[in-house]
Structures are given as structure tokens and as C-alpha cells.
């Protein structure tokens, strides 16, 4: 993608020069090379994240279940999961603030920063500041783990701490070689358990929905309801994710208070998930048709398809504009615009593009203009109701998270608990 510079070379130029195309070509080559390096860096970061999360997720959950009282462990595990959801919520809120700052903070007041606004599709926020803040917070909160004892006291049924078991009563620890020898047998035994597989598959389906929302909900809100990236992050971090955390916590309280049996948990889960699905159905009718984008999902015939052929437009140019014909174009050049006017209060920011050949042909009249940014739709009033329905459905569906998780812990042998949770997380990540 070639993001065009603020020197107004993104207009239609009939001289047929190739300087802009060559410049964008060099920029594209450099971007691809940088992207390859970033993929390697992200792969290493994800590997380290996977190794570092093992003590918290598989081992930490098994640890809490072993040392907490049987009646209290559902609540403690629910608190653990709820807090882990509040982390991404804080990240979205932090991102909402950071995305209002230009990515190059040292270029504040420059021509590029003066021309672009946070609502501009070409705007890139200071995402890296949030990463620095969260990384520093992670390092600080990790320090107390070094001061935990080697063994925690067992909690009796009254909720008080009992004595730490003697070292002599402990079973001899297995070496890594012993574990590797037992690994195939343990793995096959888990895979041959129909109940375990069904529980893991149900959680995989639930996680796939969460992953889809976490990945695409931002962009969906932007395109479908004409909101900004910062505001969509704010809504997700302040409304959507906290509702999921509350649902997980309430599910833990239900498990503690009612002590749902292994037969009752599936019925409870089916009932809650059915209600959640019913709440999602209205979302199919709360949207607008996809905006027409020339040469992307709208390819007219005749002159409009070739009207900018002599404009020397870069193939990967990206500076979307909305024409007076209510069609979105990838750049002013692709709309055939030759002139522009600036905002009265900002000499660097374009108010509108004029003399647009393609738009004039499309609307069949003169006075063809285009304004910066994508075309709005008629659905912004649906934004808050949609977020309410998604959050309510997420809250009700999250009520089943803790009961199903406790069912996994109760249906595998005690000595296989940590290994079963590890296999569960592996299958959830892969599937």
C-alpha cells in the first residue's frame, strides 16, 4: 500500500510522469522488507509469551484448584479468569487514548501531522506507547512472584489455612526424562476420553467466537457504523470486555453457591448459550449495505472504469475520498480529481477535491467534488444498541465459562490435571 504524501501528488496528473509511481514502488519494496522483519520479531515474541504464560494458565489453575478448598476453587479460578479479561479491557482503553496521538511523537506540528486528523484513514496512532506502558507494568507486577514460598498451605473447608504438608509425605518428583517417557501414554489417554474431547471442542467453539470479535469487531464498528478507531476501542474496553469479565465472575459465584453437579453443568450451559444466540439474532438486521468502493466492490462499465487511466495513479495508492456521487474512491487520483481547496483554519488540510472527471461521469452532471475520508452511512444510530446486545450476549455466554472449566478439572484424574489443562490450551490455540 502506498500512502500518498501531503505534497498533493495524489491528484490526477495528465502529464503521464512516472516519478510518483517509482517513488511509491520504492516505498512498497522497503515496506515489504520491514514487514518480513516484523513477522520474525512477532513470532519470537509469541513464543516467549507462550512459555511465560504456562505458569499462569495451565499450572496456575491446577495450583489454585489443588490448594484451595473444594468449594472455593471455582470462585478463585473465576477471579483469575475475570482479571485476565480486565487486562485486554485496560489495553483497549489505553489504546483508545494512544491512538489519538500521532505515531511519530517527535513530528508533532509537522506538515504531515497538521494535514492528518485521527479520523483520517491514513492516520497511524502511537500504538507503541501503550506497549511500553503495559510491558513496564508487567515487569513490576511480576516481582512479587519471587517472594512466594515453595509450598502453599492447604485451605480446609472452613476457608482457613491448614498446615503445610511434610516433605516426607510428598511423592517423589518426576524428572524430565520420566515425563517424556510417559507423555505419549498420557496424551493418548486424554484423547480417548470422549467427555474431555467434547468439553474442549465446546470451549474451542466459544473461543473462536471471542477470537473473531477481538480481531474484527473494531473494524466492523468502523465500517458498519462510521465510528473512529479510538472510539471503537473505547467502547470495547469500557463496555464489551468488562461485561465478559462480570459474566465469568458471576459464573464462579454460581458454582460456589449452588455446587452444580456434572450432570447439571451441561444443561445450564446449553440454556445460557441458547439465550446468548437468541440475543445475537437482531444484529443481522441492525446494519447498512456495504459502501460502494470503485474498483473494489463496485466496477462500473464504460468510461468510469478507464477515466483515470491517464492520471499516472499509483496502483497501491491509499487516500480514500467520498465523491459527490456517494461512491468511495481509493484516492483523489482514482476519482480523476485535478484541483483541491484547503480548510480556512488549516492551510495544510484539504477541505475538498474539485474537477473530478470520474465523479462527473458517474453522476451525469457537473460540479463533481470529493471530500477526504470514506463515505458515511446511515447506521451510526445503531452503534450503541449493537454494543449493548453484544455485551449482554457476551455476559450471558460467559456464565458458562467457569462451570465448563471446573467440569474439565473434575473429569480427569488428579495426577493428569495440569497436563490436561495444557493439552486443552494447546487444542484451543490450534483449533
UniProtKB/TrEMBL annotation:
Gene Ontology BP annotations: monoatomic ion transport; sodium-independent organic anion transport
InterPro entries: Kazal_dom, Kazal_dom_sf, MFS_trans_sf, OATP
Protein's organism: Salvelinus namaycush
Annotated protein name in UniProt: Solute carrier organic anion transporter family member
Positions of the Kazal-like domain: 301-357
Annotated GO CC locations: basolateral plasma membrane
Pfam families named in the record: Kazal_2 (PF07648), OATP (PF03137)
Subcellular location: Cell membrane
Family per record: Belongs to the organo anion transporter (TC 2.A.60) family.
Source organism superkingdom: Eukaryota
Membrane topology: Multi-pass membrane protein
Amino acid at each position: 500500500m502506498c500512502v500518498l504524501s501531503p505534497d498533493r501528488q495524489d491528484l490526477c496528473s495528465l502529464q503521464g510522469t512516472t516519478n510518483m509511481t517509482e517513488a511509491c514502488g520504492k516505498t512498497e519494496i522497503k515496506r515489504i522488507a520491514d514487514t518480513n522483519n516484523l513477522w520474525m520479531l512477532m513470532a519470537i515474541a509469541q513464543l516467549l509469551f507462550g512459555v511465560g504464560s504456562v505458569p499462569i494458565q495451565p499450572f496456575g489453575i491446577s495450583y489454585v484448584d489443588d490448594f484451595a478448598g473444594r468449594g472455593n476453587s471455582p470462585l478463585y479460578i473465576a477471579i483469575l479468569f475475570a482479571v485476565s479479561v480486565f487486562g485486554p479491557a485496560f489495553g483497549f482503553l489505553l489504546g483508545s487514548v494512544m491512538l489519538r496521538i500521532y505515531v511519530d511523537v517527535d513530528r508533532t506540528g509537522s506538515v504531515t501531522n497538521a494535514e492528518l486528523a485521527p479520523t483520517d484513514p491514513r492516520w497511524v496512532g502511537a500504538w507503541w506507547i501503550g506497549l511500553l506502558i503495559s510491558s513496564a507494568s508487567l515487569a513490576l507486577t511480576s516481582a512479587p512472584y519471587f517472594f512466594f514460598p515453595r509450598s502453599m498451605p492447604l485451605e480446609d473447608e472452613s476457608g482457613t489455612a491448614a498446615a503445610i504438608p511434610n516433605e516426607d509425605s510428598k511423592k517423589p518428583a518426576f524428572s524430565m526424562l520420566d515425563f517424556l517417557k510417559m507423555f505419549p501414554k498420557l496424551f493418548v489417554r486424554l484423547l480417548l476420553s470422549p467427555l474431555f474431547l467434547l468439553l474442549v471442542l465446546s470451549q474451542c467453539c466459544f473461543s473462536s467466537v471471542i477470537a473473531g470479535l477481538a480481531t474484527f469487531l473494531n473494524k466492523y464498528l468502523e465500517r458498519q457504523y462510521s465510528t473512529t478507531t479510538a472510539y471503537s476501542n473505547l467502547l470495547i474496553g469500557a463496555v464489551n470486555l468488562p461485561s465478559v469479565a462480570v459474566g465469568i465472575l458471576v459464573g464462579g459465584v454460581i458454582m460456589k453457591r449452588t455446587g452444580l453437579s456434572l450432570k447439571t453443568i451441561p444443561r445450564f450451559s446449553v440454556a445460557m448459550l441458547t439465550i446468548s444466540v437468541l440475543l445475537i439474532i437482531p444484529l443481522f438486521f441492525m446494519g447498512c449495505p456495504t459502501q460502494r468502493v470503485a474498483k473494489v466492490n463496485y466496477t462500473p462499465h464504460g468510461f468510469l472504469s478507464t477515466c483515470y487511466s491517464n492520471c499516472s495513479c499509483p496502483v497501491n495508492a491509499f487516500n480514500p475520498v467520498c465523491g459527490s456521487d456517494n461512491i468511495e474512491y481509493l484516492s483523489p487520483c482514482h476519482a480523476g480529481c485535478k484541483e483541491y481547496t484547503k480548510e480556512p483554519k488549516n492551510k495544510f488540510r484539504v477541505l475538498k477535491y474539485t474537477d473530478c472527471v470520474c465523479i462527473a461521469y458517474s453522476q451525469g452532471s457537473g460540479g463533481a467534488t470529493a471530500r477526504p475520508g470514506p463515505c458515511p452511512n446511515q447506521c451510526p444510530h445503531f452503534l450503541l444498541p449493537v454494543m449493548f446486545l453484544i455485551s449482554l450476549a457476551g455476559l450471558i455466554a460467559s456464565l458458562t465459562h467457569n462451570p465448563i472449566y471446573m467440569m474439565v478439572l473434575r473429569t480427569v484424574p488428579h495426577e493428569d490435571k495440569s497436563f490436561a489443562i495444557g493439552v486443552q490450551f494447546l487444542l484451543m490455540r490450534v483449533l
